[in-house]
Amino acid sequence: MTLRHFLADDDLTAEEQYSVLELAAELKADPMARRPFEDRSIAVVFDKASTRTRVSFEVGITELGGHPMIIDGSSSQMGRGESIADTARVLGRHVAAIVWRTSGQERIEEMAAYAGVPVVNALTDEYHPCQILADLQTIREHKGGTRGLTFTYFGDAANNMGNSYALGMALAGMHVRLAGPEGFLPDPEIIARAERIASSTGGSITVTTDARAAAEGSDVMVTDTWVSMGMSGEGRETVFRPYQINADLMTLADKDAIVMHCLPAYRGKEITAEVLDGPQSVIWDEAENRRHAQKAVLTLLAEASAPAGGPRGAGRVGSR
Protein backbone atom coordinates (compact mmCIF):
# COMPACT_ATOMS: atom_id res chain seq x y z
CA MET A 1 0.00 0.00 0.00
CA THR A 2 1.10 3.58 -0.64
CA LEU A 3 0.43 6.61 1.49
CA ARG A 4 -2.19 8.71 -0.27
CA HIS A 5 -3.20 12.33 0.08
CA PHE A 6 -6.00 14.43 -1.41
CA LEU A 7 -4.47 17.83 -2.05
CA ALA A 8 -5.92 18.70 -5.45
CA ASP A 9 -8.80 17.37 -7.53
CA ASP A 10 -6.61 15.41 -9.91
CA ASP A 11 -4.94 13.50 -7.09
CA LEU A 12 -7.78 11.08 -7.85
CA THR A 13 -8.03 9.26 -11.14
CA ALA A 14 -11.37 9.36 -12.95
CA GLU A 15 -12.01 5.81 -11.77
CA GLU A 16 -11.18 6.68 -8.17
CA GLN A 17 -13.39 9.76 -8.30
CA TYR A 18 -16.26 7.58 -9.53
CA SER A 19 -15.65 5.11 -6.69
CA VAL A 20 -15.63 7.92 -4.13
CA LEU A 21 -18.95 9.21 -5.43
CA GLU A 22 -20.46 5.73 -5.36
CA LEU A 23 -19.33 5.34 -1.76
CA ALA A 24 -20.62 8.82 -0.88
CA ALA A 25 -24.07 7.78 -2.07
CA GLU A 26 -23.83 4.60 0.02
CA LEU A 27 -22.82 6.59 3.09
CA LYS A 28 -25.65 9.05 2.58
CA ALA A 29 -28.12 6.16 2.60
CA ASP A 30 -26.43 4.45 5.56
CA PRO A 31 -24.22 6.93 7.47
CA MET A 32 -22.64 4.27 9.72
CA ALA A 33 -21.88 1.76 6.95
CA ARG A 34 -18.10 2.27 7.16
CA ARG A 35 -16.04 2.78 10.36
CA PRO A 36 -12.41 2.96 9.14
CA PHE A 37 -11.34 5.30 11.94
CA GLU A 38 -12.85 3.40 14.88
CA ASP A 39 -11.30 4.73 18.11
CA ARG A 40 -8.77 6.84 16.19
CA SER A 41 -8.41 10.62 15.96
CA ILE A 42 -8.22 12.90 12.93
CA ALA A 43 -6.74 16.40 13.27
CA VAL A 44 -8.88 19.06 11.57
CA VAL A 45 -6.86 22.28 11.45
CA PHE A 46 -8.34 25.66 10.53
CA ASP A 47 -6.22 28.63 9.54
CA LYS A 48 -9.35 30.20 8.01
CA ALA A 49 -12.87 30.65 9.31
CA SER A 50 -15.36 27.92 8.47
CA THR A 51 -18.95 26.85 8.96
CA ARG A 52 -19.77 24.08 6.48
CA THR A 53 -16.28 22.61 6.43
CA ARG A 54 -16.04 22.36 10.20
CA VAL A 55 -19.53 20.96 10.70
CA SER A 56 -19.31 18.47 7.86
CA PHE A 57 -15.89 17.12 8.84
CA GLU A 58 -16.65 17.03 12.57
CA VAL A 59 -19.90 15.13 12.14
CA GLY A 60 -18.55 12.99 9.32
CA ILE A 61 -15.45 11.83 11.19
CA THR A 62 -17.62 10.88 14.15
CA GLU A 63 -19.84 8.81 11.85
CA LEU A 64 -16.70 7.07 10.53
CA GLY A 65 -15.97 5.98 14.08
CA GLY A 66 -13.24 8.54 14.67
CA HIS A 67 -12.66 11.48 16.97
CA PRO A 68 -12.33 14.87 15.23
CA MET A 69 -9.62 16.91 16.94
CA ILE A 70 -10.40 20.51 15.97
CA ILE A 71 -7.31 22.76 16.04
CA ASP A 72 -7.35 26.52 15.57
CA GLY A 73 -4.16 27.09 13.61
CA SER A 74 -3.90 30.71 14.68
CA SER A 75 -3.86 29.83 18.39
CA SER A 76 -1.61 26.76 18.13
CA GLN A 77 2.18 26.77 18.01
CA MET A 78 1.87 27.05 14.21
CA GLY A 79 0.52 30.52 14.78
CA ARG A 80 3.68 31.35 16.71
CA GLY A 81 5.95 30.26 13.89
CA GLU A 82 6.55 26.54 14.45
CA SER A 83 7.47 25.07 11.09
CA ILE A 84 4.95 23.10 9.07
CA ALA A 85 7.36 20.18 8.87
CA ASP A 86 7.72 19.95 12.65
CA THR A 87 3.98 20.31 13.16
CA ALA A 88 3.36 17.58 10.59
CA ARG A 89 5.78 15.19 12.27
CA VAL A 90 4.11 15.69 15.65
CA LEU A 91 0.54 15.43 14.39
CA GLY A 92 1.41 12.34 12.39
CA ARG A 93 2.55 10.56 15.55
CA HIS A 94 -0.86 10.99 17.14
CA VAL A 95 -3.59 10.98 14.52
CA ALA A 96 -4.76 8.76 11.68
CA ALA A 97 -5.19 11.62 9.17
CA ILE A 98 -4.92 15.40 8.92
CA VAL A 99 -7.49 17.75 7.38
CA TRP A 100 -6.26 21.31 6.83
CA ARG A 101 -7.95 24.52 5.69
CA THR A 102 -5.17 26.98 5.00
CA SER A 103 -3.81 29.52 2.50
CA GLY A 104 -1.07 28.60 0.05
CA GLN A 105 -1.06 25.19 -1.62
CA GLU A 106 2.64 24.82 -0.85
CA ARG A 107 1.77 24.74 2.86
CA ILE A 108 -0.45 21.68 2.63
CA GLU A 109 2.00 19.98 0.27
CA GLU A 110 4.73 20.44 2.90
CA MET A 111 2.39 19.04 5.56
CA ALA A 112 1.80 15.97 3.38
CA ALA A 113 5.50 15.51 2.77
CA TYR A 114 6.24 15.13 6.49
CA ALA A 115 3.06 13.89 8.19
CA GLY A 116 3.30 10.18 7.46
CA VAL A 117 -0.51 9.96 7.47
CA PRO A 118 -3.07 10.93 4.81
CA VAL A 119 -3.60 14.69 4.42
CA VAL A 120 -6.81 16.18 3.00
CA ASN A 121 -7.17 19.66 1.50
CA ALA A 122 -10.18 21.32 3.15
CA LEU A 123 -9.49 24.50 1.09
CA THR A 124 -6.41 26.36 -0.02
CA ASP A 125 -6.03 29.48 -2.12
CA GLU A 126 -5.51 27.23 -5.15
CA TYR A 127 -8.00 24.37 -4.75
CA HIS A 128 -11.17 23.28 -2.96
CA PRO A 129 -11.40 19.61 -3.96
CA CYS A 130 -13.78 18.41 -1.23
CA GLN A 131 -16.37 20.95 -2.39
CA ILE A 132 -16.13 19.61 -5.94
CA LEU A 133 -16.82 16.04 -4.78
CA ALA A 134 -19.92 17.27 -2.96
CA ASP A 135 -21.02 19.14 -6.07
CA LEU A 136 -20.56 16.04 -8.21
CA GLN A 137 -22.58 13.96 -5.77
CA THR A 138 -25.35 16.54 -5.99
CA ILE A 139 -25.28 16.56 -9.79
CA ARG A 140 -25.49 12.77 -9.86
CA GLU A 141 -28.50 12.86 -7.55
CA HIS A 142 -30.41 15.41 -9.61
CA LYS A 143 -29.25 14.65 -13.16
CA GLY A 144 -28.63 10.89 -12.94
CA GLY A 145 -24.93 11.16 -13.79
CA THR A 146 -22.22 13.58 -14.87
CA ARG A 147 -20.68 12.41 -18.13
CA GLY A 148 -21.64 14.58 -21.11
CA LEU A 149 -23.40 17.27 -19.09
CA THR A 150 -22.51 20.95 -19.51
CA PHE A 151 -21.31 22.57 -16.31
CA THR A 152 -20.94 26.36 -16.27
CA TYR A 153 -19.26 28.45 -13.59
CA PHE A 154 -19.74 32.23 -13.46
CA GLY A 155 -17.54 34.70 -11.60
CA ASP A 156 -13.91 34.68 -10.53
CA ALA A 157 -12.63 31.85 -12.70
CA ALA A 158 -9.06 32.41 -11.49
CA ASN A 159 -9.79 31.49 -7.87
CA ASN A 160 -9.67 28.13 -6.13
CA MET A 161 -13.22 27.25 -7.19
CA GLY A 162 -12.44 27.96 -10.84
CA ASN A 163 -9.33 25.78 -10.66
CA SER A 164 -11.05 22.90 -8.91
CA TYR A 165 -14.10 23.03 -11.16
CA ALA A 166 -11.89 22.82 -14.25
CA LEU A 167 -10.03 19.77 -12.97
CA GLY A 168 -12.74 17.96 -11.03
CA MET A 169 -15.53 18.30 -13.55
CA ALA A 170 -13.21 17.30 -16.39
CA LEU A 171 -12.42 14.12 -14.45
CA ALA A 172 -16.16 13.44 -14.32
CA GLY A 173 -16.41 13.72 -18.12
CA MET A 174 -18.31 17.01 -18.15
CA HIS A 175 -18.16 19.87 -20.63
CA VAL A 176 -16.82 22.64 -18.41
CA ARG A 177 -17.41 26.31 -19.19
CA LEU A 178 -15.67 28.96 -17.09
CA ALA A 179 -17.08 32.46 -17.58
CA GLY A 180 -15.41 35.47 -15.99
CA PRO A 181 -14.10 38.94 -16.77
CA GLU A 182 -10.67 39.66 -18.20
CA GLY A 183 -8.11 39.43 -15.46
CA PHE A 184 -10.11 36.75 -13.62
CA LEU A 185 -9.66 33.79 -15.94
CA PRO A 186 -7.83 30.56 -15.07
CA ASP A 187 -4.09 30.12 -15.22
CA PRO A 188 -3.13 28.46 -18.53
CA GLU A 189 -1.37 25.69 -16.58
CA ILE A 190 -4.67 24.75 -14.93
CA ILE A 191 -6.46 24.74 -18.26
CA ALA A 192 -3.75 22.59 -19.82
CA ARG A 193 -4.12 20.04 -17.01
CA ALA A 194 -7.89 20.08 -17.32
CA GLU A 195 -7.74 19.65 -21.08
CA ARG A 196 -5.45 16.63 -20.73
CA ILE A 197 -7.96 15.08 -18.34
CA ALA A 198 -10.93 15.96 -20.56
CA SER A 199 -9.26 14.34 -23.57
CA SER A 200 -9.38 11.01 -21.74
CA THR A 201 -12.81 11.32 -20.14
CA GLY A 202 -14.81 12.73 -23.06
CA GLY A 203 -15.23 16.16 -21.53
CA SER A 204 -14.10 19.58 -22.74
CA ILE A 205 -12.95 22.93 -21.37
CA THR A 206 -14.14 26.36 -22.53
CA VAL A 207 -12.96 29.67 -21.09
CA THR A 208 -14.91 32.80 -22.01
CA THR A 209 -15.75 36.35 -20.95
CA ASP A 210 -19.25 36.03 -22.49
CA ALA A 211 -21.64 35.04 -19.69
CA ARG A 212 -24.69 34.71 -21.95
CA ALA A 213 -22.91 32.48 -24.44
CA ALA A 214 -21.63 30.35 -21.57
CA ALA A 215 -25.12 29.90 -20.15
CA GLU A 216 -26.61 28.68 -23.42
CA GLY A 217 -27.98 25.14 -22.94
CA SER A 218 -26.12 24.55 -19.66
CA ASP A 219 -27.23 21.67 -17.46
CA VAL A 220 -25.60 23.00 -14.28
CA MET A 221 -25.27 26.71 -13.40
CA VAL A 222 -22.81 27.56 -10.61
CA THR A 223 -21.40 30.66 -8.97
CA ASP A 224 -19.40 31.70 -5.91
CA THR A 225 -19.09 34.80 -3.74
CA TRP A 226 -17.42 37.70 -5.52
CA VAL A 227 -15.32 38.53 -2.43
CA SER A 228 -13.62 35.54 -0.83
CA MET A 229 -11.95 35.47 2.58
CA GLY A 230 -9.07 37.88 2.87
CA MET A 231 -10.00 39.84 -0.27
CA SER A 232 -10.89 43.48 -0.57
CA GLY A 233 -14.32 43.97 -2.13
CA GLU A 234 -13.46 47.31 -3.65
CA GLY A 235 -14.44 47.43 -7.30
CA ARG A 236 -15.21 43.72 -7.60
CA GLU A 237 -19.00 44.10 -7.60
CA THR A 238 -18.84 46.27 -10.70
CA VAL A 239 -16.48 43.89 -12.47
CA PHE A 240 -18.51 40.76 -11.73
CA ARG A 241 -22.05 42.17 -12.09
CA PRO A 242 -22.44 40.86 -15.70
CA TYR A 243 -21.81 37.32 -14.36
CA GLN A 244 -24.63 37.31 -11.81
CA ILE A 245 -26.89 34.25 -12.01
CA ASN A 246 -30.39 35.72 -12.27
CA ALA A 247 -33.71 34.84 -13.87
CA ASP A 248 -32.66 36.38 -17.19
CA LEU A 249 -29.48 34.30 -17.39
CA MET A 250 -31.41 31.18 -16.40
CA THR A 251 -33.65 31.52 -19.46
CA LEU A 252 -30.59 30.68 -21.58
CA ALA A 253 -29.79 27.45 -19.71
CA ASP A 254 -31.46 24.11 -20.30
CA LYS A 255 -35.04 24.17 -18.97
CA ASP A 256 -34.12 21.41 -16.50
CA ALA A 257 -30.89 23.03 -15.40
CA ILE A 258 -29.96 22.98 -11.73
CA VAL A 259 -28.30 25.80 -9.79
CA MET A 260 -25.52 25.38 -7.23
CA HIS A 261 -23.46 27.63 -4.94
CA CYS A 262 -20.77 26.51 -2.49
CA LEU A 263 -21.88 29.13 0.08
CA PRO A 264 -21.79 31.54 1.80
CA ALA A 265 -24.11 33.25 -0.69
CA TYR A 266 -24.93 36.93 -0.98
CA ARG A 267 -28.38 37.40 -2.46
CA GLY A 268 -28.52 40.24 -4.95
CA LYS A 269 -24.84 40.01 -5.74
CA GLU A 270 -23.47 36.84 -7.39
CA ILE A 271 -26.95 35.28 -7.39
CA THR A 272 -30.44 36.67 -6.96
CA ALA A 273 -32.72 35.50 -4.17
CA GLU A 274 -35.27 34.47 -6.80
CA VAL A 275 -32.83 31.91 -8.23
CA LEU A 276 -31.11 30.82 -5.03
CA ASP A 277 -34.41 30.11 -3.31
CA GLY A 278 -36.15 28.96 -6.48
CA PRO A 279 -37.19 25.49 -7.69
CA GLN A 280 -34.03 24.87 -9.71
CA SER A 281 -31.75 25.42 -6.71
CA VAL A 282 -30.13 22.30 -5.22
CA ILE A 283 -27.87 24.32 -2.92
CA TRP A 284 -28.98 22.76 0.36
CA ASP A 285 -28.44 19.23 -0.94
CA GLU A 286 -25.00 20.43 -2.07
CA ALA A 287 -24.24 21.72 1.43
CA GLU A 288 -25.28 18.41 3.02
CA ASN A 289 -23.24 16.38 0.56
CA ARG A 290 -20.00 17.87 1.86
CA ARG A 291 -20.25 15.41 4.74
CA HIS A 292 -20.92 12.32 2.66
CA ALA A 293 -18.31 13.09 0.00
CA GLN A 294 -15.64 13.87 2.60
CA LYS A 295 -16.40 10.66 4.48
CA ALA A 296 -15.96 8.76 1.22
CA VAL A 297 -12.59 10.30 0.37
CA LEU A 298 -11.31 9.76 3.93
CA THR A 299 -12.36 6.12 3.67
CA LEU A 300 -10.56 5.73 0.35
CA LEU A 301 -7.37 7.24 1.76
CA ALA A 302 -7.56 5.08 4.88
CA GLU A 303 -7.94 1.93 2.82
CA ALA A 304 -5.25 2.86 0.29
CA SER A 305 -2.56 4.17 2.63
CA ALA A 306 0.03 2.35 4.68
CA PRO A 307 -1.18 1.15 8.09
CA ALA A 308 -0.22 3.03 11.25
CA GLY A 309 3.32 2.16 12.24
CA GLY A 310 4.52 1.88 8.65
CA PRO A 311 7.28 4.02 7.15
CA ARG A 312 6.70 7.70 7.87
CA GLY A 313 7.21 10.47 5.35
CA ALA A 314 7.82 7.99 2.54
CA GLY A 315 4.61 8.65 0.63
CA ARG A 316 4.11 10.76 -2.41
CA VAL A 317 2.25 14.03 -2.46
CA GLY A 318 -0.66 13.71 -4.80
CA SER A 319 -0.54 11.90 -8.11
CA ARG A 320 0.40 14.57 -10.63
Automatic annotation (TrEMBL):
Residue sites binding L-ornithine per the record: N160, D224, S228, M229
Residue ranges constituting the Aspartate/ornithine carbamoyltransferase carbamoyl-P binding domain according to the UniProt record: 4-141
Primary location: cytoplasm
Gene3D superfamilies: Aspartate/ornithine carbamoyltransferase
Positions that bind carbamoyl phosphate: S50, T51, R52, T53, Q77, R101, H128, P129, C130, Q131, C262, L263, R290
Catalysed reactions, semicolon-separated: carbamoyl phosphate + L-ornithine = L-citrulline + phosphate + H(+)
Keyword Hydrolase part of the UniProt annotation: no
GO biological process: citrulline biosynthetic process; L-arginine biosynthetic process via ornithine
Gene: argF
Similarity comment text for this entry: Belongs to the aspartate/ornithine carbamoyltransferase superfamily. OTCase family.
Keyword Ligase set for record: no
Pathway recorded for this protein: Amino-acid biosynthesis; L-arginine biosynthesis; L-arginine from L-ornithine and carbamoyl phosphate: step 1/3
Record-listed E.C. numbers: 2.1.3.3
SUPFAM superfamilies per the UniProt record, alphabetical: Aspartate/ornithine carbamoyltransferase
Organism the protein comes from: Raineyella fluvialis
InterPro entries found in the cross-reference section: Asp/Orn_carbamoyltranf_P-bd, Asp/Orn_carbamoylTrfase, Asp/Orn_carbamoylTrfase_sf, Asp_carbamoyltransf_Asp/Orn-bd, Orn/put_carbamltrans, OTCase_ArgI
GO molecular function, one term: amino acid binding
Protein name as annotated: Ornithine carbamoyltransferase
Domain Aspartate/ornithine carbamoyltransferase Asp/Orn-binding, chain residue ranges per copy: 148-300
Entry's localization field: Cytoplasm
A GO CC annotation given for this chain: cytoplasm
UniProt KW keywords: Cytoplasm, Transferase
